[in-house]
Amino acid sequence: MFSISRFFPFLAVAVSLLAWYDPQPLLGWKGAIVPSLMAIMFCMGLTLRLEDFRRVLNKPKPIATGVTLQFVLMPLIAWALALLLGLSPELTIGLILVGACAGGTASNVMTYLAGGDVALSVSMTLMSTLWSVVITPYLVWFYAGADITVDTLAMIISIGKIVIIPIALGLIVNRVMPQLRQRLDRYLPDLASAVILFVVAVIVALNADEISTLGASAAIAVMLHNLIGLAGGYAIARWNGHTEVESRTIALEVGMQNSGLGVALALKFYGPVAALPGALFSIWHNISGSLLAAFWQWRTQQNVQHLQRARQSGSLLRGAGAHVNADTAPDAGQSVSHYTPDSSDSGK
Fold first, then answer.
1. CA distance 306 to 311
2. Domain spanning 15-347: which CATH class is it, in words?
3. Could you read off the pLDDT of 35-54 as tens digits, one per residue?
4. pTM of the full structure
C-alpha cells in the first residue's frame, strides 16, 4: 500500500521542483500556511495522552537532554554557520529562527522508522514546544543582535496560537474520544506528511524567484545545520550515558526542527527572504532524516539476524549474551530501553 510518509523524501523533492518550475497555481495559498501548521500540531496532539506527561515526570533525564540540546546546540550552530559563511542579515535571521524553534512532528515518524522510542520523541516534541513559547523569542533576540527588532510579545502570541492551542485540542479529543484517535492513528503520519508537503510546496512557490538566485552558501548552511544537529545530538547523548534507542531519538528530535513554524514566523516578522532557510530546511531535513532512519533500521535488522544466527549455532555464550542485552539490545530491534512504549505507541 502506498504510504506518503514512507516516500516522503522523494515526494518532497518532487513537489518542490514542481512548485519552483510552475509557482503560479500555489501563490494564492499563502494564507493557508498557518492553518496547515495548526492542523499538523492538532495531529500531534491526537497522539498524546496523559501517560506522556507521567513519563516526563518519572524519567526526566532523556527529556532534559533533548530539550537542552534543542535550544542550545541548534541556534548556536545556526549563528556560527551564518557568521562563517557570511550570510546576509535576512538569511541569518531565518537560519537562527529555524535553530530556535522546537522539534517538529516529522521527527516522530522518523523515530519510529529508525527503531527509536516514539513516546520519548513525542514527549520531547511536546516539552520543547511548550518551552519554545518563552525561549524562542529570546534566543532570536540574543543571537540576532540589536540590528534586528524582535517583537517578543507578538511572537509569543503567534507561537501560542499555532502550537499550544491545536496541541491542547488534539489532546482533549484523544482523551474524550479515544476511539476516534484509534481509527485515525494509522493515517496520522501520512496525513501530517501530506500537509507538510503542501506547506513546502506553497513556501517554495512563494519564494521561487529568490530560490533561483539563492547562493550556494545558504544551501550549504542549511544542510550543515541539520547534519551537525543530528550528529551532535547523537554523539552528546551517547557521551552523556543514554542508550542507543534514546540517542537515536534525541538525535532526530534535535536535528529535525519545526522549520514550518520558523517559516511562518519569518514571513510574519521579517519577510520572504528570511523564510528561505526554513523552506530549504523543510525539504532537506526530511530527506536526511529518512535516510538516517533507513540506515538505523537496516543496522537493527543486521543485528537481529546476527543474534539469531549466533543463537541457532549455539555459540552465544551466557556472559556475552548478558553483555549484548545490557549494551546493544536497542540495535537488536528492541525499541525500548528505559522507556517502554505500549502497543499503541509502537504504531505511530
1. 9
2. mainly alpha
3. 887 887 787 777 767 776 67
4. 0.70
